[in-house]
Design goal:
31% of the residues are buried. The termini are far apart. Strand 6 and strand 7 form a beta hairpin. This protein is an alpha/beta fold and 166 residues long. It has one domain: Glutaredoxin (3-Layer(aba) Sandwich). It is globular. 36% of the residues lie in helices and 20% in strands.
Length: 166
């Protein structure tokens, strides 16, 4: 219930306050180390230093996530060999709901679980889904709030531009 209240506060904050994110373009991406959702072990953002990383916050109850996860999976599979990775951070209160969602919408990229809700706080998350595109040096280069299928073309262009930077 605590997480539902936190997410309700995030959504309410988005509606009631001007859009400003704690983690914004050009800033160093907040570090995190979280457990994997469907495997044992932990994954940290620092493990992907030197790669272009798309950090995607999602939840099983998020309608747009049903569209974004499969499209991000295709993009990740297409560009992984060039140094691109997606890290999806689930914010469900019930881990079983998250795992059930992934059975219906499987992905090949790492999916993490933040049951404590510390990572969305560090990133200043204000709505779902929200994603952060991070360059090879660990700086946020773009913030995407919401998702519609046509967004994938813009995301792909941004990722390709960052992949060309060495």
């Amino acid at each position: 219930m605590r997480h539902l209240l936190t997410l309700t506060a995030i959504i309410t904050g988005l509606l009631l306050s001007p859009l400003s994110l704690a983690a914004a373009s050009g800033e160093k991406a907040p570090a995190f180390k979280l457990p994997l959702l469907t495997k044992t072990g932990n994954t940290a953002l620092a493990d992907y230093r030197g790669k272009v990383v798309y950090v995607d916050f999602w939840a099983s109850w998020c309608g747009p996530c049903r569209k974004s996860l499969p499209l991000l999976n295709g993009l990740r599979n297409e560009l992984k060999s060039q140094g691109f990775e997606v890290l999806a951070i689930n914010l469900d209160e019930d881990i079983k709901a998250a795992r059930s969602f992934l059975k219906e919408y499987p992905v090949s990229y790492p999916t993490l679980y933040d049951g404590a809700g510390k990572t969305p706080e560090a990133y200043g998350l204000r709505g779902m889904p929200t994603s952060y595109l991070i360059d090879r040096k660990g700086h946020i280069q773009a913030v995407h709030q919401g998702f519609k299928p046509s967004d994938i073309d813009k995301i792909k262009a941004e990722v390709n531009a960052l992949l060309k930077q060495k």
